[in-house]
C-alpha cells in the first residue's frame, strides 16, 4: 500500500465534466490511499476569504484577459461564438483527478473509502486559519419561481464561516443579491450562469446580521464523486448517473464507503463539489460550498470475484456505512443511454421525483432479494416498515431519491 497526495493545480483539476479522455492526474493500485485536495467552484463569491493568498486556489482560478488557467469549464465545445465561455457552462463543478486504478475494467466495482475530511483554511491575511463557504439561492433552485418577496426573481449569495473549535457548525456572515458581473473577457453575466466568475464586491450590497440565532451543524462531504462514464468523451458534472457523479448526499462523508460500477478501463475516479453542510433536497440550488481535503482508500473488486457477494450485479452507486446501506434512484438511472445524443441538455426537461422514487425502490428491492435472500413479498413488506426514502436533491436535472435500510434490522432476535 502506498499513500500519496494530490494537490489542486491547473494540471490536477478538470472543471465541469467527467471524461474518459483526460489524462489521469494519478495512478494507483487497489489498496492504495490518497490525500486529495478539492476546491469549491463558488470560491470567487468571496475572493478575499476563499482564494486570496492560497497558491493552489489562486493558480486554478487565475483568469485575466490574457490568460485563463482552466479554459474548458463544462462538457461543451472549447471554441466558437460562445455566450458564456469555453464549455458553455454545461457542467460547473471543480473536480480533482482523474485517479486511474490499475487493472480496473468494465464490469468491476470500485470501492472508495472516505477515511477523513478536513476544511481548507483561508490564507488571506485578514482571515487566516478560518474556514468559509458560500450558499447560493440560485436560478436553478427549486424555489426560484415561487418567491413571495421583492425583488423577484433574484439570486442570493450567503457567506458562511465554519466554526471548528468544538462541535463543527456554520454561521452566516453576510449575504447579497447577485448583480450583473463582467468577466475578464468582457462578457456580462446577469445571472449565475458560468462557473468561476469573480464577484466584484464594489457592485453588491452586503447585508450583515443575518441568521443571527442560527448555527448549522457541519456535515462535511463531497457532493460530486464518481467515475467516468463510457457514453461520451465529456459528460456534464451536473446530472448524476450510473457511475456516480453529482449525487449531493450529505451522508457521503467521513466513514462512508461508496461502490461504483466501472465503465471504462482504469475507472477514472474524480472528486469535488465539497460541502460543509447540506440538507436533503439541496432546495435552493447549493449546499454550503467550501473547499475540503479528503483521505481516500481505493479497493478494486474484480468482476470474476463478485458472484455470491453483495456486489454481484451492482450497476449503480451504493453507499455503505457502519449503520446502513443507501441506494440512489434517479429520474433516469442512465440518462446518457436513455436520452440519446442530446442527453446532457435534454435531461433537465424530464426531472421527476416519481421516476426517481420508483428507481430507488427497484434498486433496494433487488438488494433485499439478491443479497439477503428475501422473497419479493418479504422485501416489499420490509421496505414499507423498515426502509427510509428521502429526496436527495431536486436541483441536478436528474433528480434523486435515496432509499436507506439500516443494518440493525438484520440483527434482531
TrEMBL record:
InterPro entries: FmdA_AmdA (IPR004304). It comes from the Bacteria. Pfam families: FmdA_AmdA. SUPFAM superfamilies: Acetamidase/Formamidase-like (SSF141130). PANTHER family: FORMAMIDASE C869.04-RELATED. This is Acetamidase. The lineage of its organism: Bacteria, Pseudomonadati, Pseudomonadota, Alphaproteobacteria, Hyphomicrobiales.
Amino acid at each position: 500500500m502506498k499513500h500519496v497526495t494530490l494537490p489542486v493545480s491547473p494540471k490536477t483539476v478538470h472543471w465541469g465534466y467527467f471524461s474518459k479522455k483526460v489524462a489521469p492526474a494519478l495512478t494507483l493500485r487497489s489498496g492504495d490511499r490518497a490525500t486529495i485536495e478539492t476546491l469549491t467552484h463558488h470560491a470567487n463569491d468571496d475572493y478575499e476569504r476563499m482564494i486570496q493568498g492560497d497558491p493552489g486556489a489562486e493558480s486554478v482560478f487565475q483568469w485575466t484577459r490574457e490568460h485563463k488557467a482552466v479554459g474548458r469549464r463544462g462538457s461543451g465545445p472549447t471554441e466558437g461564438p460562445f455566450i458564456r465561455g469555453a464549455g458553455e457552462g454545461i457542467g460547473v463543478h471543480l473536480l480533482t483527478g482523474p485517479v486511474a486504478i490499475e487493472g480496473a475494467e468494465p464490469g468491476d466495482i470500485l470501492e472508495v473509502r472516505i477515511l477523513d475530511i478536513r476544511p481548507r483554511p483561508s490564507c488571506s491575511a485578514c482571515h487566516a486559519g478560518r474556514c468559509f463557504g458560500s450558499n447560493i439561492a440560485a436560478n436553478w433552485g427549486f424555489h426560484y419561481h415561487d418567491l413571495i418577496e421583492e425583488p423577484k426573481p433574484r439570486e442570493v449569495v450567503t457567506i458562511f464561516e465554519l466554526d471548528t473549535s468544538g462541535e463543527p457548525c456554520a454561521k452566516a456572515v453576510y449575504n447579497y443579491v447577485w448583480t450583473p458581473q463582467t468577466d475578464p473577457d468582457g462578457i456580462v453575466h446577469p445571472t449565475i450562469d458560468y462557473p468561476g466568475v469573480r464577484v466584484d464586491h464594489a457592485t453588491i450590497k452586503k447585508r450583515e446580521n443575518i441568521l443571527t440565532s442560527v448555527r448549522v451543524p457541519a456535515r462535511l462531504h463531497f457532493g460530486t464523486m464518481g467515475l467516468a462514464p463510457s457514453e461520451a468523451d465529456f459528460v456534464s458534472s451536473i446530472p448524476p448517473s450510473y457511475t456516480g457523479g453529482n449525487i449531493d448526499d450529505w451522508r457521503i462523508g467521513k466513514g462512508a464507503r461508496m461502490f461504483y460500477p466501472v465503465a471504462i478501463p482504469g475507472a477514472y475516479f474524480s472528486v469535488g463539489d465539497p460541502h460543509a453542510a447540506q440538507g436533503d433536497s439541496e432546495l435552493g440550488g447549493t449546499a454550503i460550498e467550501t473547499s475540503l481535503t479528503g483521505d481516500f482508500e481505493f479497493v478494486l473488486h474484480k468482476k470474476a470475484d463478485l458472484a455470491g457477494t453483495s456486489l454481484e450485479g451492482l450497476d449503480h452507486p451504493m453507499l455503505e456505512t457502519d449503520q446502513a446501506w443507501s441506494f440512489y434512484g434517479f429520474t433516469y438511472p442512465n440518462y446518457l443511454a436513455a436520452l440519446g445524443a442530446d442527453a446532457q441538455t435534454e435531461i433537465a426537461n424530464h426531472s421527476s421525483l416519481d421516476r426517481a422514487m420508483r428507481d430507488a425502490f427497484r434498486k433496494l428491492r433487488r438488494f433485499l432479494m439478491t443479497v439477503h435472500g428475501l422473497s419479493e413479498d418479504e422485501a416489499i413488506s420490509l421496505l414499507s416498515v423498515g426502509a427510509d426514502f428521502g429526496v436527495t436533491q431536486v436541483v441536478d436535472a436528474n433528480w434523486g431519491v435515496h432509499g436507506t435500510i439500516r443494518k440493525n434490522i438484520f440483527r434482531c432476535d
